[in-house]
Structures are given as structure tokens and as C-alpha cells.
Write a sequence for this structure.
């Protein structure tokens, strides 16, 4: 078991396609954890091993990889960058002690990292930026660095200055030591600081020292007196301030050819804290001290389910020592006892059995069938609960139905396993239509889940846009008479009713009343009349949608002492409605949704325009809780919002989000040309 001070747990996060998985691959090769670097494009990388990752050449879930380098035990969580998978990323971050944020060397993409950086800062996690893909034509280190500083402040400082750019990017100047290093694959060798970047590197170094001196009076004095501070002092300050999330160093790399990997590994070892120094608290804010003896507390940060070999729960051990055959208590599920069936260290899909995992370790436990991501596991029934990551509400839905007829129980069992692996998904029966819907953070999130369902459980599902729950109502009243008379062999059928149909205020539904005088329709037939009316209301006269907001009075009729029956009155009432409703100026009602859209202020007016173009009625606009963001409230027809999350993200560099709830039904303006209701 590694000494806790030699453990580093690091999340690798960043914007979509910034090169995280490729960089992780380089780090693993550099540390000797893998012999040969795989490739995302060829589907051979260590952490993008799931078939859905390979098919789309992108990370669709977190991948864990363990490596040992210079006696340091590193666990990397390679997190997806695509916004639809951001909940997966946030859950993984919750189990790590530090974060490497990988970004393209492209200033225009910095804005996309905002919510991620806010989350990391809210957890006070030490982090650094890697400006990556510097080998690409058009890459711009300086502009990206300045954009980072503009977004996240002057304590974001370069610790490296690149030598050469694009195809000629071949090394960097370490600004703390003012030494130049040239890349040799993922290793490096000393070289001269080229004359053409000397001034830039000096200026960048001065910026670094100035930022550090904000936290070190001695360094500040040295700078004021023009004394050259010793390298040791700068290094010590860097370690201290980075570990305390005061300074956010910026490194230069190109993970593709492996450039910058050695320096990144050194930075992770030197600047990032071990779990011993990473503050952990329970849900009530009480500190948890990592100790190898004493009760165990572990947090489940990811669940993988293999259709054959079962469940694998990746846990972060906060304190205590976890054994592969331990019996644990799941505090999050009513103190249920669960038994571990093996303990592993992960390297992508490879599992290496380990006898125990000490405090600070990340390990995978086999076959904890009832345990879910986010749960707190303890030993000896020790009662403590860890804070849960608040997941975002889903904002995209599809209606799903298995392609082949299967029993409901089997479908829900398979779906629940998919949901177990990804708690940001949700399954629901839709209000009004009763359709089975799968909801997620975005379109890709949901389609990936459906792909996974097909692959893992051989369950092919048909998916389509959710039905819009239109309704119909009437805008005028009428009186109708129907007589149902039928002679069949023995005794016949007789029902005779007069109904008055009146419109009701919107949102008040259907009501039935009888005003029969003198028993012309006997009392025992009233329920049948109401039933017949209700049945007729299921399919309206315009397009077959349910009819609502009306009052129907049974005020006259007649009966036959032998032939009248409940069935006959029911039929007569239904006939009356079918005759009467078309005479009441029927209209289609569409569901109106109230949305609260949160976007950076720069996009507020564009988003208001987008909502207006969707026939939205803007109710108000206020500064959001998140600084620099506005929340726009609007009522929008639901039919206009089917792909709204995708459109909103396109319009806001992925930064917009929205919440919604059904508000009311409004008449569809103009002549109804929409779809007919499904039969
Ligand atoms: N030129 C260049 N291309 C790179 C580099 N690193 C990665 N790429 C390419 O960029 C694309 C994305 O790389 P990934 O490693 O999958 O990026 P990622 O950040 O893990 O992507 P997601 O996890 O899906 O957000 C692939 O086509 C890589 O080959 C690099 O250093 N230089
Ligand atoms: Mg990736």
C-alpha cells in the first residue's frame, strides 16, 4: 500500500476535444504504465475504451488510470469534455484532490471553461492550466494565456514559455528556473534560451514572481529591492501557493507528440497536494482526517456495469483501510450492509487486483449490487455522510419504446442499470401523454445512453421526439339531443338525453351536472351519462386531442322501462357529445412552458431574440446568482422547445442552461395545421 504522502489523485478536465485523453496516454507512457501510446482516432487509447467512446472518437464517460512515477502513485480521472457529459466530470472531480484543466491553444474557447472552473474553485481544488496542441498551425499561446487571465484573474500565470510555435514548437523555458528545455519525445533535454524569446520570457517570469509575491512578503521585498530571488524560494512558493489554490500555473504542451508530458508529471508531483494535505469534510462540514487505522469512510464516485461480470464501484477512500472482502455499511441507503467481492486498481479497462486500499486511494470494488454513485460507505456501521454533488436537471428528452415486445419489468431492469452507471439520466412517464421518456443533459447524452443500452443488454429501442400534449377546448356553447334506440332479438336498447355544453375558464377542466326534473331520466343512469361524455372527450373534434375546460349539463331526456340500460345511456351521451362539440367552435390548446434561461450577459439579447422567434413571451430579465450571467424568464409554447438545449448552447458557446416547468395551455393562434393525435 503506498504511503499517503506519495499519492496524487488528479482529474484531467477541459474543453471538448482539447486533447485530454491523448495527454493522459502520453503521461501513462511516460510513467511506464503502458508500453505503447494508443490513439483516440484509432480507438486504442487506455481511457477511451468504451465502444461508445471509440465509435464517436470522444470521451463519453470518465476513464480511470493508475501509474507510478518516481515512487509517486498517480490516479488520473480522464474526464469527458463535451458539455452533455459534464455531470460525469463533476462527479469524478469530487473524488480527486487536484485538477489539470486542458485547453486548446485558442483564446476564443476559454469562455467554454467557465462553469467547470467555477465548480473547481467552489471546491477550492488546486488546479493548473495546460495550453495544449501547441504544435497545431494557428495555435496561439500568448493570446490564450491573456484570455485565461482576463477570465480568471492575474493569479493565473505562465510557469513555462513555449519555444517555437505550430510545427516548430519544440521546447519551453521553465520560468522559475529560467532554464530552456528541448523536447525529445515525452522526455526533454537542456538547451539555450533562444534570443528571440528572451525578453518575452523575462517579462513572463516577472509576472510569475509578482503574482507569487502577493502571498510572500519576503519575495515582495526582494523584488522591490531588485534582488534576484533564489530558485528554491520560487519553487517553494509555487508548491505552496498552487497547493492552496492561490496561484494557478499555466503550462505549455502538445500531448499528441508527447511534448510537455515530463514537466506535467513533475508539476503534478510537486505542486499538487497528497490526500494527507487535501481537506475533506463530511456533509455537515466536519473535517475528516485521513488515517490508515480506525473506521473506514469511502465515497462512490463512479459506477461501471459490465453485463457479465457485474458492477464495479469506484470509490475514494477518505480514511481507514479498505480490504477486498470487507463488509461495509451503505450509510446513504439506510445503513444496509454490503460485501465487497474484490478490490482493484484501474488502468482503463484493465483491472489489477489489490489486497487493500489505504486512506487517499482510489480503488474499484466488485459487486456492490445495491450501491450507487454518490453513496457513502463506512465500516463498523460508522455513521457519517459525505456531501453529494448536486446534479443538473435534465433538459433534453426523447420518448422511447423497445423495438421488440418485451415485458415491462425487463425493460425497466435494463434501464435502471443504465441509470445506475449515469445518475444524470432520468426515466419518467410524461405528464399528460404517459409516454416513457428518457431525459438527459443534452441530445448526445441521451443518444449515447440508448447506444449503451443496445450494446450492453441487447435492447434495441425506438426513440422519437416526445409527443406535444395538445388538448382541445370549446369557445361557444350549444344544446344537443341524442336518442339511441336499438332492437336486437330479445329486449332492445333505449337511451335519450338532452345535453347543454358550455365552455369553462381555462385550466378548470371538465365538470358534469344533472338538472333532471321529474325523473325523466332515472337517477341510476346519471353515472352512465357522465361516463359516455368523458369517453367522448378523449378524442376531440379538431384533431383527436383530449377535450378540456367545459361544463356539460344533462337537463332532459326520456327512458323506456324495459329497454333502457346504462350502456344505452352511455352511448346516447357519447353520441350527443360527438354531435355537439363541433358546433361549439372548438380550438386546439397547446402546452405553454415557463422557462428560466441563464446565460452570460453578453448573450442575453441574442437569447431574448431567440425566445421571441419561438413565440415566447418574455416575462422578465434579472441578474443571475452566478456573476456575469442573466436569467431570462419566458413563457414559450412547448412545441418550440424540442431541441432548445442544443440551440441555446450553440448560441452561447455552450454556456447557456435552462430550467422549465409546464405552466398552462393556450389556444393555438391562427388556423390549426398541426398533427393529428395518434390513435
Ligand atoms: N495537433 C494535435 N492534435 C491533438 C493533440 N492532442 C490531441 N489531438 C487530437 O485532438 C483530437 C481530440 O483528442 P482527445 O485526446 O480525444 O481530446 P479530449 O480532450 O480527450 O476529447 P473529449 O474527451 O471528447 O473532450 C484527436 O483527434 C486527437 O488526435 C495535440 O497535441 N496536437
Ligand atoms: Mg477524452
Amino acid at each position: 500500500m503506498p504511503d499517503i504522502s506519495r499519492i496524487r489523485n488528479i482529474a484531467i478536465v477541459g474543453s471538448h476535444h482539447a486533447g485530454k485523453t491523448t495527454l493522459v496516454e502520453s503521461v501513462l507512457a511516460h510513467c511506464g504504465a503502458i508500453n505503447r501510446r494508443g490513439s483516440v482516432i484509432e480507438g486504442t487509447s487506455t481511457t477511451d475504451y468504451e465502444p461508445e467512446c471509440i465509435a464517436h472518437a470522444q470521451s463519453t464517460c470518465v476513464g480511470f488510470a493508475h501509474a507510478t512515477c518516481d515512487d509517486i502513485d498517480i490516479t488520473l480521472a480522464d474526464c469527458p469534455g463535451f458539455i452533455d457529459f459534464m455531470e460525469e466530470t463533476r462527479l469524478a472531480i469530487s473524488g480527486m484532490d487536484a485538477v489539470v484543466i486542458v485547453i486548446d491553444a485558442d483564446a476564443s474557447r476559454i469562455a467554454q471553461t467557465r462553469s467547470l472552473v467555477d465548480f473547481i474553485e467552489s471546491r477550492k481544488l488546486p488546479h493548473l492550466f495546460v495550453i495544449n496542441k501547441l504544435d497545431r498551425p494557428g495555435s496561439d499561446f500568448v493570446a490564450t494565456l491573456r484570455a485565461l487571465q482576463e477570465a480568471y484573474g492575474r493569479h493565473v500565470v505562465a510557469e513555462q514559455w513555449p519555444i517555437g510555435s505550430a510545427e516548430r514548437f519544440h521546447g519551453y523555458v521553465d520560468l522559475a528556473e529560467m532554464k530552456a528545455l528541448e523536447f525529445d519525445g515525452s522526455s526533454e533535454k537542456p538547451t539555450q534560451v533562444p534570443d528571440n524569446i528572451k525578453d518575452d520570457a523575462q517579462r513572463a517570469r516577472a509576472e510569475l514572481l509578482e503574482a507569487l509575491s502577493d502571498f510572500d512578503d519576503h519575495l515582495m521585498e526582494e523584488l522591490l529591492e531588485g534582488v534576484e530571488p533564489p530558485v528554491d524560494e520560487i519553487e517553494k512558493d509555487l508548491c505552496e501557493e498552487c497547493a492552496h489554490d492561490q496561484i494557478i500555473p499555466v503550462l505549455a504542451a502538445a500531448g499528441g507528440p508527447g511534448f510537455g508530458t515530463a514537466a506535467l508529471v513533475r508539476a503534478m508531483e510537486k505542486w499538487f497536494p497528497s490526500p494527507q494535505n487535501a481537506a475533506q469534510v463530511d456533509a455537515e462540514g466536519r473535517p475528516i482526517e485521513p488515517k490508515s487505522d480506525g473506521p473506514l469512510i469511502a465515497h462512490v464516485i463512479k459506477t461501471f456495469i459490465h453485463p457479465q461480470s457485474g458492477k464495479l464501484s469506484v470509490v475514494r477512500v477518505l480514511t481507514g483501510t479498505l480490504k477486498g472482502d470487507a463488509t461495509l455499511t451503505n450509510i446513504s441507503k439506510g445503513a444496509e450492509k454490503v460485501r465487497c467481492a474484490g478490490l482493484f486498481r484501474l488502468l482503463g479497462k484493465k483491472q489489477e487486483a489489490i489486497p487493500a486500499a489505504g486512506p487517499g486511494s482510489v480503488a474499484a470494488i466488485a459487486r456492490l449490487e445495491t450501491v450507487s454513485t454518490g453513496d457513502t460507505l463506512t465500516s463498523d456501521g460508522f455513521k457519517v455522510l459525505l456531501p453529494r454533488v448536486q446534479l443538473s436537471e435534465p433538459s433534453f428528452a426523447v420518448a422511447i419504446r423497445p423495438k421488440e415486445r418485451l415485458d415491462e419489468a425487463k425493460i425497466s431492469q435494463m434501464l435502471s442499470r443504465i441509470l445506475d452507471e449515469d445518475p444524470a439520466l432520468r426515466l419518467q412517464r410524461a405528464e399528460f401523454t404517459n409516454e416513457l421518456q428518457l431525459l438527459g443533459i443534452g441530445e448526445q447524452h441521451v443518444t449515447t445512453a440508448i447506444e449503451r443500452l443496445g450494446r450492453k443488454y441487447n435492447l434495441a429501442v425506438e426513440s422519437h421526439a416526445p409527443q406535444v400534449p395538445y388538448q382541445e377546448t370549446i369557445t361557444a356553447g350549444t344544446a344537443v339531443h341524442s336518442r339511441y334506440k336499438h332492437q336486437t332479438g330479445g329486449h332492445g336498447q333505449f337511451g335519450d338525453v338532452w345535453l347543454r355544453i358550455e365552455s369553462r375558464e381555462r385550466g378548470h377542466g371538465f365538470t358534469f351536472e344533472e338538472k333532471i326534473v321529474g325523473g325523466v331520466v332515472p337517477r341510476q343512469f346519471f353515472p352512465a351519462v357522465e361516463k359516455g361524455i368523458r369517453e367522448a372527450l378523449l378524442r376531440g373534434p379538431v384533431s383527436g386531442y383530449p377535450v378540456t375546460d367545459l361544463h356539460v349539463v344533462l337537463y332532459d331526456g326520456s327512458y323506456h322501462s324495459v329497454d333502457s340500460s346504462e350502456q344505452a345511456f352511455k352511448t346516447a351521451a357519447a353520441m350527443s357529445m360527438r354531435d355537439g362539440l363541433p358546433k361549439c367552435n372548438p380550438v386546439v390548446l397547446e402546452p405553454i412552458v415557463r422557462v428560466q434561461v441563464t446565460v452570460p450577459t453578453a448573450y442575453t439579447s441574442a437569447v431574448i431574440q431567440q425566445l421571441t422567434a419561438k413565440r415566447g413571451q418574455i416575462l422578465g430579465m434579472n441578474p443571475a446568482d452566478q456573476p456575469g450571467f442573466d436569467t431570462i424568464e419566458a413563457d414559450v409554447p412547448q412545441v418550440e422547445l424540442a431541441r432548445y438545449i442544443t440551440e441555446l448552447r450553440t448560441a452561447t458557446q455552450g454556456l447557456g442552461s435552462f430550467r422549465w416547468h409546464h405552466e398552462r395551455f393556450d389556444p393555438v393562434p391562427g388556423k390549426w395545421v398541426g398533427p393529428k393525435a395518434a390513435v
